[in-house]
Specification:
Length: 250
């Protein structure tokens, strides 16, 4: 059985232009830096992401992408500067943000529905069930709730990870190269589906990727990191692959 998503085509981020969606949370980094002992880190950088914006972050290995994501997720605290989600300072993992990682990090002892409901323990059973069903529908996995993780393809597992993230109705969705382990066809399909979900859910997205073409396709805006600093911060409309590549050259 192949999962399908039935929805009207969403505008691309480029078609959306600078439009934002008020349901998402704003994100602000003010003079933020984090340095590791004996190796490079990040910053100081200043960055603002508007509510509902789709931002892609690119850069080579060691450029600071993972450090930035860990800071945004609250796993690391800035050694300098402040990160704000809306009006709140991020001092650790925050209930208004969720992270989807490369491998999905699903729990094999739970079925699909159990994985999606894992972060909803504060809700009553009926609300948990309804949230999980809605999230699975969004990612094209209606009827998959009783499946076990080992029964799913790689693309389906990433859909479950995305459903779990969406089920908590986050203001900020962080994605750490979520499609990197997938084949090209599945990767392209999921990227297009993600755009449709973003447009429907009005969530702010920060998407980290090594793939420059993917960043230009998905993002309204792209930030290129090089040696822990922002080498380019630009709208993707009219931005060429060559300009983005040049910004990343040392």
């Amino acid at each position: 059985m192949t999962a399908t998503v039935n929805r009207d085509p969403a505008p691309t981020p480029q078609d959306a232009g600078s439009a934002v969606h008020p349901a998402g949370a704003s994100l602000t980094l003010d003079n933020v830096s984090y340095r590791y002992r004996g190796r490079a880190g990040l910053g100081p950088i200043d960055l603002h992401v508007s509510p509902g914006e789709f931002l892609c972050v690119v850069g080579p290995s060691g450029s600071g992408k993972s450090t930035l994501l860990s800071l945004l997720a609250g796993f690391l605290r800035p050694q300098q500067g402040v990160i704000r989600l809306g009006d709140e300072t991020v001092r650790g993992p925050h209930p208004s943000l969720t992270l989807v990682q490369q491998e999905g990090a699903l729990f094999p002892w739970l079925d699909v529905a159990g994985n999606v409901k894992f972060g909803l323990k504060r809700l009553g059973r009926a609300d948990r069930d309804a949230r999980a069903a809605e999230a699975l529908r969004l990612v094209g996995l209606d009827g998959y709730g009783a499946r076990r993780v080992h029964e799913l393809s790689g693309g389906q597992r990433q859909r479950v990870s995305l459903a779990r993230a969406l089920a908590v109705k986050p203001g900020l969705l962080l994605l750490d190269e979520p499609f990197s382990a997938l084949d090209v066809q599945t990767r392209t399909s999921l990227a297009d589906e993600l755009l449709g979900i973003w447009w429907q859910q009005k969530v702010t997205v920060v998407f980290v990727t090594h793939q420059l073409e993917e960043a230009l396709h998905l993002g309204q805006r792209v930030v290129a990191l090089r040696d822990g600093e922002v080498a380019l911060d630009a709208r993707t409309r009219g931005l060429s692959l060559e300009t983005l590549q040049a910004a990343l050259q040392t």
